[in-house]
Amino acid sequence: NLGGGATYDSVNHVIQVCPNVNFSFDVNAYGCSGTSILSLVSDNLTTAPGSKFPTIYKDPPRTDTMIGNFSWKPTSKDIGLHIVTFHIKDSACSGDEKPTADFSVIISVGYSPDAGPDAAYCPGKSNSLPVQLNVTGFPPGSNFYWYNAATGIADSTISDSTAQSPLVTPAVTTDYVVYVTDASGNPLPCKATDTVRVKVFAPQIVSAGPDQTICLNQKVTLKPKIPTTGTSVYWYPDPTLSDDSITNPYAKPTVYGKSSYFAIFVDINKCRYFDSTHVITNGIAPKLITTIVPD
Questions:
Q1: Structure letter (DSSP) for residue 45
Q2: 137: nearest Cα among 20, 7, 15
Q3: What pLDDT is attached to residue 287?
Q4: In the predicted model, what is the mean pLDDT of residues 252-272?
């Protein structure tokens, strides 16, 4: 009684389904006598993450017949084969009757391209970062073709229309479509295209802050310039930063001359920017060593 958007391959005995499609089927268990107390369990939580398998007795208060309903909506992360096993135990079986039984169901989640979540881009500033698109959910050796949904062609806003992860720099909000074929040039069986929207917003003014000069052995607080609310700063990891996860870490260079510190900014609209600042060591500050001598 396979229900939903799945199909059954009776030759290979495999349930075939595409990502993001709900399907379900029942599992019935019968005891070897009217006094049986059945249990019916499955490993579905580990073999089919996110699936459900509630069970009930069919004719309570009798406990010799059970039914379980397996249901699942796989995602693109679940592409591939899944073997789900069901275990039945009967308390009343004896002799040649087996007290337990196991059977497995093979589920094949087909390839289906996923262009990822919508993104944001804020053109107009030299430090605005382009959006990197990325498609997943395809077999090895696949071919890609990205294009503008409005025009049907790969325009100049796409860095490489045949790449898995091209960069895009639209001037206005744009829908991009990716068409995916397998190594032989055949469209993927579940679907061949997917669409992602890149929303365009006015840019914010951000910077990593002014260059600063200190003496070697000293430290200085970095002072990025960002809007008052909604913008996050992510410093590139550097052992001379006190904490690269906060907005205003202090830097303590260990070499003489100029040390560079790089940051990524994400504004309230999720646009991304890049900038750098420098700390220049000019002179060497003495190291103060304190020795405590007891009286």
A1: H
A2: 20
A3: 66
A4: 95
Backbone region of residue 53 per phi and psi (left: phi > 0; alpha: psi in -120 to 50; beta: other values): beta
CB atoms within 10 A of CB 184: 7
DSSP state of 44: H
Taking residues 169-177, report their average pLDDT: 98
Identify the CA nearest to 200 among candidates 264, 145, 118, 263.
118
Residue 291 has a pLDDT of 65
- CA dist., res. 97 & res. 100, Å (int): 9
Instruction: State how far the Cα of 208 lies from the Cα of 241, in Å rounded to an integer.
Output: 14
- 110, 136, 164, 205, 245 from 77: Cα distances, Å: 11, 9, 17, 37, 29
Give CA separation, 273 vs 159, 198, 208, 236, in Å. Answer: 18, 16, 10, 13
pLDDT tens-digit series, residues 120-165? 999 999 999 999 999 999 999 999 999 999 999 999 999 999 999 9
Closest CA to 24 of 44, 1, 42: 1
User: How far apart (Å, rounded) are the C-alpha atoms in residues 195 and 31?
Assistant: 51
On whether the CB atoms of residues 127 and 121 are closer than 8 A, the answer is no
